[in-house]
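Researcher: We plan to redesign the surface later, but first we want a full-length starting point. Tokens attached.
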């Protein structure tokens, strides 16, 4: 029933079927359906967890085995945030239905719960799942989120025109202050694993000097996850990193990745000693300027609601509801 771990290698490439279908499937957080997100999570958190990938030329579904108490559950490989969709392509619902019909057995117990993540509650997939499974399964709402995003239509000027006058004024003042003390910005798009690792180490150096030191991207799961993600993005040249320097020292970074014309932000940080320079805002501004020069159309900032997310309201004027469901057969 479960696949050989080595079989993931065929999917782990920029133009694999998995990644092509992730690009084609309408969903609130398309970047997080890519292998750069899903398989990097597996590397960092669950390298030995049993999984299933079923696919044909028009669809793909992916699940990993989770056990809640004594109950086996098949849910998405990325099980922590539940951002990217794990039912991809127009034939994805067919493959899901086939899997549900099989009712796979795990250690003698029937696996009768299937988790689907990253669903647009009003989208085509949601309508199709309701049509197929309402009446034969219980469809339980597991989680609700809202993806915050900013339109980049009209370039940097267009983006700024959709911000408040006070936002624009404060940003200009921050730019002048940072320029006066010698802050400069570097743009990096790693194209090899070695380049990726070198840039990542510079980010870690900043993280260790930040207010998050010891609790951010520099330790444990986060370090492995984001390093693996940036390496994968180097294969497609879709990683985007901006580093802020001052007097030859790295003092800030922001990074994320592209999926077609959409940028998905991941992390940013800055040295605590530079807190008064508004480097977080300036890093965002520099990244947006770069994205606009490259023709990006949208900046996804991730969840827009919850603790520590208030700052996103100034940057993101778009919202995309997102749900995760459990089909209980």
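Model: Full-length starting sequence:
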């Amino acid at each position: 029933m479960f696949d050989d771990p080595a079989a993931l290698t065929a999917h782990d490439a920029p133009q694999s079927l998995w990644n092509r279908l992730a690009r084609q499937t309408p969903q609130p957080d398309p970047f997080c359906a890519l292998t750069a997100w899903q398989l990097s999570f597996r590397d960092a958190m669950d390298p030995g967890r049993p999984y299933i990938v079923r696919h044909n030329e028009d669809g793909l579904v992916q699940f990993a085995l989770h056990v809640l108490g004594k109950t086996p559950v098949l849910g998405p490989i990325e099980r922590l945030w539940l951002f990217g969709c794990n039912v991809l392509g127009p034939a994805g619902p067919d493959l899901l239905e086939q899997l549900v019909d099989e009712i796979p057995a795990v250690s003698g117990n029937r696996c009768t719960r299937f988790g689907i993540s990253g669903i647009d509650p009003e989208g085509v997939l949601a309508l199709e799942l309701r049509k197929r499974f309402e009446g034969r399964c219980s469809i339980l709402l597991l989680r609700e989120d809202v993806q915050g995003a900013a339109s980049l239509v009209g370039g940097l000027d267009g983006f700024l025109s959709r911000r408040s006058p006070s936002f624009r004024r404060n940003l200009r003042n921050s730019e002048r202050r940072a320029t006066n003390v010698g802050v400069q910005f570097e743009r990096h798009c790693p194209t090899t694993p070695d380049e990726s690792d070198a840039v990542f180490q510079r980010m870690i150096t900043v993280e260790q000097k930040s207010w998050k030191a010891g609790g951010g991207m520099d330790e444990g799961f986060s370090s492995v996850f984001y390093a693996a993600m940036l390496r994968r993005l180097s294969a497609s040249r879709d990683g985007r990193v901006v580093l802020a320097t001052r007097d030859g020292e790295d003092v800030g970074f922001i990074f994320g990745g592209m999926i077609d014309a959409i940028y998905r932000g991941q992390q940013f940080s800055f040295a605590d000693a530079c807190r008064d320079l508004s480097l977080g805002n300036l890093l965002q501004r520099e990244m947006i300027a770069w994205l606009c020069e490259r023709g990006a159309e949208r900046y996804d900032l991730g969840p827009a609601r919850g603790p520590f997310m208030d700052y996103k309201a100034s940057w993101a004027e778009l919202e995309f509801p997102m749900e995760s469901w459990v089909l209980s057969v």
